[in-house]
Amino acid sequence: MALINQTFAWIEKELKDSIDFVIWTGDSARHDNDEAIPRSTEQVTRLNQLLVDKVVEVFGKQDNTNDTDPTNDLIIPVVPTFGNNDILPHNIFSAGPNVWTRRYASIWKQFIPEEQRHQFEQGGWFSVEVIPKKLAVFSLNTLYFFDSNSAVDGCSRKSEPGYRQMEWLRIQLQFLRERRMKAFLIGHVPPARTESKQAWDESCWQKYTLWMRQYRDVVAGTMYGHMNIDHFIIQDFEDIKMRKMGLRDVTDSEDGRTSVDGNVSTRVAGSYLIDLRDEWAKLPKPPSSKRSTLTGAIVEDSVSRSGGASRKDKQSTTTSKGRKKSREKQRRKFLEKIGGEWGERFSLSHVSPSVVPNYFPTLRVYEYNVTGLEDTLGDASEDRQYGLSNAGNDIPVRQPMQISMDGDSVDLETDANTQARRKPKPKKPRFVVPDAPSKSSPPGPAYSLQTLSLLGFTQYYANLTHINNDFTLSQAEAGDERYADAEKWKEGKHRGKRPNDKDHKPRPKAFEYEVEYHTRNDGVYCLKDLTMRSYIDLAQRIGSFKGEKAVRGQDSDEETESAGEDEVESDSGDKAATLRRDNGDNEGNDDDDDSSYLTTHKESDRRKKGKKHKSKQREINKAWYAFVKRAFVGTLGPDEIREQFGRE
Question: What is the pTM of this model?
Answer without folding.
Answer: 0.81
